[in-house]
Amino acid sequence: MHARRLLTLMFALLLAACASTGVPGATPAPTAPALEGTSWVVTQIKGAATLADKQPTIAFAEGRASGTATCNNFSAGFTQTDSKLSFSAVAMTAMACTDERLNTQEQAFAAALGEVTQVRSASTGAELLNTGGTAVLTLAAAPKVTPKPLVGTTWTLSGIVANEAVSSPVADTLVTLTFTDTALSGKACNTFRAGVTIKDATLAVGPVASTRMACPTDQEGAQEASVLATLEAATSYAIEGDTLTLTTPKSTGLVFTAS
């Protein structure tokens, strides 16, 4: 009887161990990483390696995913619940890829992003999956990049944000911006300047004064007016690597790249 009770107890303990740890030798199911606050480099698109010198990137912050598709910047809202992942409509700038390799990769990335419904951890970092569970984007953690300083850097306009969409600057135009500790200055069609108060990630821009030369085209004139109005309304900024984003309370903004 004693031996039988001992055998029964050992069997119960074995069942409990299996229930708590799973079948010995079985590979545990990959967990889903929490994406908020993370940054990644896309190493594969549907199993094909991305271009080593022009890999797409994606960062997740404050409920939005943004990065470079290859040539263009993109932005979209995202929602993650455990392993389920969805993106809102993707807004992307409209600059042309001059190299066909880049254009092909960008189109493949955009198509893959539209298929994503799930995320899981992987040995390389993470994988974004379609409804069939196939990895359409393979991600590796982005290397740490020291942000460019706001003051003393020459910034070049690369995007204009309105209605949660990012549009490219007018073709063949150059809009620049620089900061000191107390002022900003730059050039669109005209040169401009304004006082500025910078504290932490906020800023307050005084009235913008500019020269009054006519812009060569109506498009350039409208762009200049939009840039100056957005500068005056800007209340916060963020720098990620070599990208500066100025935003207003009305969800409009300007995106600049360090020259």
Helix-strand layout with pairing:
Layout: H1 2-21, E1 38-45, E2 48-49, E3 57-61, E4 64-68, E5 73-81, E6 84-87, E7 91-92, H2 100-113, E8 118-122, E9 125-129, E10 135-141, E11 155-162, E12 165-167, E13 176-179, E14 183-187, E15 191-199, E16 202-205, E17 209-210, H3 218-233, E18 236-240, E19 243-247, E20 253-258
Antiparallel strand pairs: 1-2, 1-3, 1-10, 3-4, 4-5, 5-6, 5-7, 8-9, 9-10, 11-12, 11-13, 11-20, 13-14, 14-15, 15-16, 15-17, 18-19, 19-20
CATH topology of the largest domain: Lipocalin
Estimate percent helicity.
10-25%
Q: How many domains in all?
A: 2
Any idea of the CATH class of the largest domain? Mainly Beta
3D shape: elongated
Number of helix segments? 3
- The helix/strand class is alpha+beta
H and E string: HEEEEEEEHEEEEEEEEEEHEEE
Largest sheet: 10 strands, antiparallel
Radius of gyration: 25 Å
CATH architecture of the largest domain: Beta Barrel
Structure in words:
- The structure is a single chain.
- This protein is α+β, with helices and mostly antiparallel strands and 259 residues long.
- It has two domains: 38-141, Lipocalin (Beta Barrel), CATH 2.40.128; 155-258, Lipocalin (Beta Barrel), CATH 2.40.128.270.
- Helix content is 19%, strand content 40%.
- Strands 1, 2, 3, 4, 5, 6, 7, 8, 9 and 10 form a ten-stranded antiparallel sheet that branches. Strands 11, 12, 13, 14, 15, 16, 17, 18, 19 and 20 form a ten-stranded antiparallel sheet that branches.
